[in-house]
Specification:
The chain is an alpha/beta fold. It is built from 9 helices and 13 strands. 25% of the residues lie in helices and 28% in strands. Strand 3 and strand 4 form a beta hairpin. The N and C termini lie far apart (49 Å). Bound molecules: S-adenosylmethionine (SAM).
Length: 306
């Protein structure tokens, strides 16, 4: 069955004639489409519509409120970059917090580090966790690590309750700022992140596309420059199934031991560090780490002026 009934919360994405088209006011005038073999799951949680379908060329696809979150074929690019850009930039990360990321892919990547003792995750939507465990076992494998502690709840509220200076690294693997993730892009949220980090601790947040969202990126950068007194950087990578085919990350550190994100001090692309995730890295390496901070001139100009 490839018929998909779109509802208001899905925006206007729809499956028409066997193709899923991702339509949203966040990328007006364009829509990436994937050919649908079979719709595997459709549900409505307290927070969003959740759908899984089998595509013909990207494996299974997870969609939240009409927006593609991951595909089996290219999730490695996103999960590996959002995790290893921050964790390879500091020596011996021990306590790591993931906000969002209910699919478990970031957990899978964090679990590669033997220095890590505690991995907390706060995901708002239990349905995302359950659906991921059912349909994306190679992503949800992250939950098998005994260091992982899952908290179901709002990441904003969770962070407010965290004692100051708790984490070495915080990874914000959020959906777009329309819906439950909206607050995760706002200044008060970044303030609580900074407070929850130890001196010289690092944060990496999903920070949208330089082709589509420079206005959002400008605001994030401006806020981060006010809040993070260590360093503030923007990096990006390619993920073919994200709108415009690229996704960015905001990487910041708090005042303390300096962090030079562009030159990783804790390399992980050696064969001996595959951790419990059972598969070698597919995308990340030290060269692509440093390259991720090289920006096209139009984006560099705006980001450096903030
Ligand atoms: N890992 C994905 C990928 O590979 O593209 C990225 C998207 S991930 C599924 C985004 C998650 O953030 C969703 O599961 C969503 O439920 C969660 N989320 C949104 N708002 C949140 C909030 N306020 N607190 C905690 N989690 C939130």
């Amino acid at each position: 069955d490839t018929n998909y009934t779109s509802t208001k919360a899905d925006g206007i994405s729809a499956v028409i004639s066997g193709w899923f088209s991702e339509i949203s006011p966040m990328w007006p005038g364009e829509a990436h489409s994937l050919k649908v073999k079979k719709i595997l799951f459709q549900g409505k949680s307290d927070y969003q519509n959740v759908m899984v379908f089998q595509s013909s060329t990207y494996g299974k696809v997870l969609v939240l409120d009409g927006v593609i979150q991951l595909t089996e074929r290219d999730e490695c690019a996103y999960q590996e970059m959002i995790t290893h850009l921050p964790l390879c930039s500091i020596p011996n990360p021990k306590k790591v917090l993931v906000i969002g990321g209910g699919d478990g892919g970031v957990l899978r990547e964090v679990s590669r580090y033997s220095s890590v003792e505690q991995i907390d995750i706060c995901e708002i939507d239990k349905m995302v966790v359950d659906v991921s465990k059912q349909f994306f076992p190679e992503v949800a494998v992250g939950y098998d690590d005994p260091r992982v502690k899952l908290h179901i709840g709002d990441g904003v509220a969770f962070l407010k309750a965290v004692s100051a200076g708790t984490y070495d690294a915080i990874i914000v693997d959020s959906s777009d700022p329309i819906g439950p993730a909206q607050e995760l892009f706002e200044k008060p949220f970044f303030e609580t992140v900074a407070k929850a980090l130890r001196p010289g601790g690092v944060v990496c947040t999903q920070a949208e596309s330089i082709w589509l969202h420079m206005h959002i990126i400008e605001d994030i950068v401006a806020n981060c420059r006010l809040i993070f007194k260590g360093s503030v950087n923007y990096a990006w990578t390619t993920v073919p199934t994200y709108p415009s085919g690229v996704i960015g990350f905001m990487l910041c550190s708090t005042e303390g031991p300096p962090v030079d994100f562009k030159h990783p001090v804790n390399p992980i692309d050696r064969d001996d560090i595959c951790g419990k995730s059972k598969r070698p890295l597919k995308f990340y390496n030290s060269d692509i780490h440093s390259a991720a901070f090289c920006l096209p001139s139009f984006a560099k100009k705006v980001i450096e002026s903030k």
